[in-house]
């Protein structure tokens, strides 16, 4: 079953952006990239194992992870995969 990660960001002007990825590490890099203003491939290179484990723990416990600064907040939501819709 495929899992999807939905990354949602909201800035100080309430502008909302949404990105959907199917790779966990890519989702972490996208979240970090949005909050720091760098491309996700650069953010991926700066990710540390303990950062990834913290995100994993939050997704398992709460179904979401949040990063924020004074101007923006960025969430990752875990969307469990489905074979078909009911």
The gist of it:
With 86 residues, the chain is of the alpha+beta class. Helices cover 40% and strands 31% of the residues. It contains three helices and four strands; from the N terminus they run E-E-H-H-H-E-E.
Query: What's the Cα radius of gyration?
Result: 13 Å
SSE ordering: EEHHHEE
The biggest beta sheet, please? 4 strands, antiparallel
Low-confidence stretches: none
- Strand neighbour order, sheet with most strands: 2-1-4-3
SSE class: alpha+beta
Distance between the termini: 16 Å
Q: What's the total count of β strands?
A: 4
Quaternary state, please? single chain
Percent strand equals: 25-35%
Helix % is 25-40%
| Number of structural domains | 1
On the 0 to 100 scale, the average pLDDT is 91
Number of helices: 3
Based on CA inertia axes, which overall geometry fits? globular
List the helices and strands and how they pair.
Elements: E1 4-11, E2 16-21, H1 24-36, H2 40-46, H3 49-62, E3 64-68, E4 72-79
Antiparallel strand pairs: 1-2, 1-4, 3-4
Helix pairs in contact: 1-2
Question: Can you walk through the features of this model?
Answer:
It is a single chain. The longest helix is centred in the middle third of the chain and has 14 residues, at 49-62. α1 (24-36) packs across α2. The protein has one domain (4-79). It is of the alpha+beta class. The protein has a four-stranded antiparallel β-sheet with strand order 2-1-4-3. The model has no long low-confidence stretch (mean pLDDT 91). Helices cover 40% and strands 31% of the residues.
């Amino acid at each position: 079953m495929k899992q999807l990660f939905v990354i949602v960001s909201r800035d100080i002007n309430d502008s909302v952006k949404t990105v959907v990825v199917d790779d966990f590490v890519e989702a972490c890099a996208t979240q970090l990239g949005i909050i720091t203003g760098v491309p996700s491939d650069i953010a991926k290179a700066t990710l540390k194992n303990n950062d990834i484990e913290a995100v994993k723990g939050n997704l398992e416990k709460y179904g979401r992870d949040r990063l924020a600064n004074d101007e923006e907040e960025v969430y990752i939501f875990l969307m469990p995969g489905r074979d078909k819709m009911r």
